[in-house]
Design goal:
This protein is mainly β and 221 residues long. It has helices spanning 144-150, 207-220, and strands at 4-5, 35-42, 45-55, 58-61, 68-74, 87-96, 110-114, 160-163, 180-183, 186-194, 202-206. The chain contains two helices and eleven strands; from the N terminus they run βββββββαββββα.
């Protein structure tokens, strides 16, 4: 089954430029209630990423989205408006994967513990994590060797997913980091990186590989 690609740009208003998903379209308002909008400061500059609510206290995103003054917006359709459905929650603790390497983006995954729990509403819902026995075949969008050749020294099929048909201009881009790859209402990947020109495929962290770390970290906190 073809996975459903859902990224941060679905929350962004039209005209957001390089932060829009390439080849995407505006989502029906609040049809993806698990989407999170992550804002933070990096060397004094405001930056933004995507994320996915996986528990009332936790958001899953990319490790390279780490910074100071991190806050998460849930229940948003247009983040440039103050919508009644929005929940803006500061992040209490950011936990990047202990083996994250910023030089090659390996293990580019991070958990954000929220300062207070997210209130479940029609516009805010958590998304299930994959089961430990999920089959990988249904998740294969592109063969590993394609990304291995394009991202030599970076891509690893053991921990990453190669997503996006090179013949179709549909992929994530700047600002989409940490956004989820969803199949059958389960988060299967989080967007990490892609080609500089924004053409597919892109690379997602394989959530099933990191499941033991995710569950262990959530339990500890």
């Amino acid at each position: 089954m073809q996975p459903l690609l859902l990224l941060l740009a679905l929350l962004l208003p039209l005209g957001a430029g390089t932060e829009e998903i390439i080849g995407g379209h505006e989502a029906k308002p609040h049809s993806r209630p698990y989407m999170a909008f992550v804002q933070f400061l990096d060397k004094g500059k405001k930056k933004r990423c995507g994320g996915v609510l996986v528990h009332k206290y936790f958001v899953l995103t990319a490790a390279h989205c780490w910074g100071s003054s991190v806050k998460v917006t849930l229940g948003a359709h247009n983040i440039q408006k103050q919508e009644k459905t929005q929940q803006v929650i500061p992040v209490k603790t950011a936990i990047p994967h202990p083996d994250y390497n910023p030089k090659n983006y390996s293990n580019d995954i991070m958990l954000l513990k929220l300062e207070r729990k997210a209130q479940q509403t029609a516009a805010v819902r958590s998304l299930r994590l994959p089961g430990t026995k999920n089959r990988e075949a249904s998740l294969e969008v592109q063969r590993d060797r394609l990304c291995e050749s394009l991202f030599h020294g970076y891509y690893s099929g053991a921990t990453q997913l190669c997503v996006g048909d090179p013949k179709e201009m549909k992929t994530g881009f700047k600002g989409d980091s940490g956004g989820p790859l969803v199949c059958n209402n389960v988060v299967q990947g989080t967007f990490s990186y892609g080609k500089p020109d924004g053409t597919p495929p892109g690379v997602f962290m394989k959530v099933s590989h990191f499941l033991p770390w995710i569950k262990r970290t959530m339990k500890r906190l």
